Amino acid sequence: MRIGFIGLGSQGGPMAQQIIDAGEDVTLWARRPETLEPFVESGAKIVGTPAEVGASSDIVCLCVVADSDVLEVASGPDGVLDGLAEGGIIVVHSTVHPDTCRKLAELSATKGVRVVDAPVSGGGRGATAGTLLVMVGGADDDVARCQPVFAAYGGPVVHLGGLGAGQTTKLLNNLLFTANMATVVDALALGETLGVEPSRLADVLTKGTARSYALESIAASGGTIQRIATHAGNLLRKDVGLVADIAGAENTTGNATFAAAQSTLGKIEELQS
Predict the structure, then answer these.
(1) Same domain, residue pair 132 and 175
(2) pLDDT of residue 273
(3) 140-153 and 12-21 are packed helices; what angle lies between their axes, rounded to 10 degrees?
(4) 101, 131, 162: which is the final residue of a domain?
(5) How far apart are CA 33 and CA 263, in angstroms?
(6) Which of 170, 207, 238, 267 is catalytic?
(7) Which residue range is the domain that position 153 belongs to?
């Protein structure tokens, strides 16, 4: 199977490498030439446009940052759709609004191309280990064709429903992570007022029934969210905004998870200012 990959950042790069290591025929393109340097001697083919990626592939994976990036790379001038043949599949690994995937599917359908959404969780470390959580939305047959690709870097791989279901699930995951950070920060602050040093309290709580990924992340940062605010604050703000838009005011007003997430975003904004 011929696989194209676009988006070779800290997560996409290891994902592409895993596909190469699995023995697939891989074609790469990147907007930043420096991200292609590790692949020069990898056996992958490096081309000059997304359209050339499409022309050399049966399945093209996108791991770019934003909704606009997905649409531009896939359907803009010299985009993937200009090269991908009928029967091809575009896989959206980026975390975007489900409607972006549906819009891309409408554009792709005119050329006989299918779309699957498959955002992932686990970062570059998970990609390198082949343990990314892959949250998949799309038609059964399309997802089945993509399974060998997902298996190269993912486990578990979960098919959640029709197109957009993967994105909705990923956004809910990020919403809950953001909300959990608020309760962690407040608990550590309470502990400090009661005489327990925050970093030591966080280290102990990660070994008890209160443990969570949010707690582990904050514990690894010495009991603060400064590192998370610096590296992921803007992405969390984007994702909470996207899921709020999907849910609508009737499902967000008075919802404890959204309230806690907004509390975290407020703390992040203070640190970033």
Answers:
(1) no
(2) 82
(3) 90
(4) 162
(5) 39
(6) 170
(7) 2-162
